[in-house]
Amino acid sequence: MKKKLLLLACIIWTLNDINAQEDRNLRFAFAVQPSVSWIKPDIASLEREGNRIGFAYGVLSDIRLGSSPNYWFSTGIMVNSQGGTLLNTKYHDEKTLSSDETTLYPTFAIATEKYKLQYIDIPLTLKLKTNEIGYMTYYGQFGMDLGFNIKARKDVEYHFSDNIDRTIDDENISDETRLFRAALQIGLGGEYNISGSTSILAGIVWNNGLNSVIGSNYFDEDDTGKPIVSSENKLEEGAKIKAISNYIGLTLGVFF
Fold first, then answer.
1. Which of 50, 121, 123, 256 is buried most deeply by CB count within 10 Å?
2. Which tens digits make up the pLDDT trace of 168-183?
3. Chain Cα centroid distance, residue 174
């Protein structure tokens, strides 16, 4: 009798587990995402010079849409580090003085600027999944990614015409970095079922920025290409700098 009760309990537990897998409307995953990111400017004085290896980590969740197991809304919260390197041919530190020791240096410097940005990202995407094939389920997803800047630093190497190299390490540029970043996000990948409701997630994501991540102005220049210095010995500002950030990432995670 005890054996029959134990067998019945095992059968009920198994059925409940299978039913839970089929009827789950909400799934959570711990995920990491190594990436390659870069910044793309749209003014002549700034050029893309290099990429930055980034890394993201956090929690992803899938919410089933309707009764079909093929349509899901995917979101989550990720801490995402990205950035890139720009070559700035019209840089000025607003500190270096000319030979008279009273006015700012009368020419622009050439600078290499390494941006190190960190965001809280909230992806909002539609995920389309296949039925399980063996132990594999494949998916494609498309949607938006909303980011909020929580850290902004920059390393700068530059020199004026005197050929004296200067550096600024880990400069805080929060005041010249936009708080909000929006992007289009496209992803492809698959899930491998290990046991029960536990699956391994692996996919590739393309994240294309929609708005400028830099919120500062470039410095205005006169007809000879030199910076305009005001009567207060400050540089005159021109239009806003426009530069978007993009990245390609490899998403790895475990669904429970």
1. 123
2. 999 999 999 999 999 9
3. 16
Question: Average pLDDT, stretch 196-211?
Answer: 95
Distance CA 137, CA 5 (A): 36
Q: How many residues does the chain have?
A: 256
Angle at 249 between CA 245 and CA 254, to 5 degrees: 140
pTM of the model: 0.85
Q: Is 9 exposed, middle or buried (0-12, 13-18, 19+ CB in 10 A)?
A: exposed
At position 225, the amino acid (one-letter code) is G
Percent of the chain with pLDDT over 90: 73
Structure tokens at 62: 């899938």
Which residue ranges form the domains of the chain, and what is each CATH number?
26-255 (2.40.160)
Q: What is the pLDDT of residues 69-124, one digit of tens each?
A: 999 999 999 999 999 999 999 999 999 888 888 889 999 999 999 999 999 999 99
Query: Could you identify the residue written with the tokens 């492809």?
Result: 188
